[in-house]
Request: fold
Amino acid sequence: MIKQTLRSMLDRTQVYDFMVPSVADELDLSHGTILYLEGITVSFDGFKAIDDLNLYIDAGELRCIIGPNGAGKTTMMDVITGKTKPDAGSAWFGQRMNLLRMSEAEIAVAGIGRKFQKPTVFENHTVFENLELAMSSNKNVFPTLFASLSSEQCDHIDEVLGIIGLNEQVKKEAGFLSHGQKQWLEIGMLLVQKAELLLVDEPVAGMTHQEMDRTAELLRTLAGTQSVVVVEHDMDFVRSLESPVTVLHQGHVLAEGSMEDIQNDQRVIDVYLGGH
Ligand SMILES: Nc1ncnc2c1ncn2[C@@H]1O[C@H](COP(=O)(O)OP(=O)(O)O)[C@@H](O)[C@H]1O
Ligand SMILES: [Mg+2]
Reply:
């Protein structure tokens, strides 16, 4: 009886009202831009951590953000994910979703995934279970406590395992993974949640060179299907991403271009590269 009720619940194509995000709009990428930040200003006690910031990310783009400590990189990520509301400006996800009107949870459900510097995988669970748990927090999936995964969901997890290169570790407890593997698993957890825009903060801190190369490869693979914004200090790593680079300085965009352009830009040399 209970089993039958559950089955009928799970068979429904329509999810329950309480699970439907209050932001009903689908991500609209018809103009080819996934993220618009315009005139964003964030003040802390009168100090402008972000100052009239404009940033546009194309759908499927891989973009690197660099800048000296205090440039406003983390605060910018906080604005995009709804953790911090700016004093001025506008922020849109695709054509129709106004990020400034959405809560942090709504923004996550809408498809913006953030990977923090420190991996936050469930150490006592296997790689597979971590992905399964991440998937169940997706808006369209009933919590897996109640059901085994559909074959479609299993296929998706398999696909993600291939992308993050952890096929062979699928039954391993996450606590036994290397630092790099944990970082990839966490990226996988965002992928099973169908994040369309991934924000990745200093992914290679603490990684071996080999892991760094593998991470660059992974992020380059994601570009095209997902949009990826990477904040990173390691210049060799940034170079290996072969992506456009935005330099932030005092909460404002100082320069934008290829790594080569950036390295030859006197303003950048003065405030950033020159300072090291
Ligand atoms: N909650 C806060 N309260 C006060 N000042 C802050 C807060 N968060 C960040 N700042 C300041 O804003 C500036 C930008 O910080 P942050 O975004 O962390 O820079 P980055 O990530 O580029 O190093 C820094 O000067 C920092 O001290
Ligand atoms: Mg920071």
User: Anything to note?
Assistant: The chain has ten helices and ten strands. Residues 44, 49, 67, 69-75 surround adenosine-5'-diphosphate (ligand 1) (CB under 6 Å).
